[in-house]
Specification:
Strand content: 15-25%
Strand order of the largest sheet: 1-2
Helix content: 25-40%
Number of domains: 1
Oligomer: single chain
Shape: globular
Order of helices and strands: HEEHEEHEEHH
Amino acid sequence: MKISASIRRKVEKRANKLCEYCQSPLEFSSDPFSVEHIFPISKGGTDDLENLALACQGCNGHKSTKTEAFDPISQTVAVFYNPRKDIWNAHFVWNEDFTEIIGKTAKGRATIKTIKLNRQSVINLRRILVLAGEHPPTL
């Protein structure tokens, strides 16, 4: 599906121009962000605004069409965090220096592990943004 400029603006505004998974800011990214399908079209998802999220290229690429993953702590398969239905702070917390995301729930941990929310490049960006007073974002 080709995302219209109007839909893209709505998704970006709703997300405060942050990746809705790793919380990286669009304005500091060297790559454009994608408007991605939370529940993939290939699995019956729709193009409705409620099924769209703003995602950086790293998160979008690692997520792809996946919707769930194994959580080694609870020993269960957990569905991924859904930015339209879940509250970020209910599933994630920042570590002490705000460079890594820690999962509070099976859903959070499965999302972090599979989508690689703590990729080294994102940790490096967060470290610089903390020093510049631009991170963590207000959720």
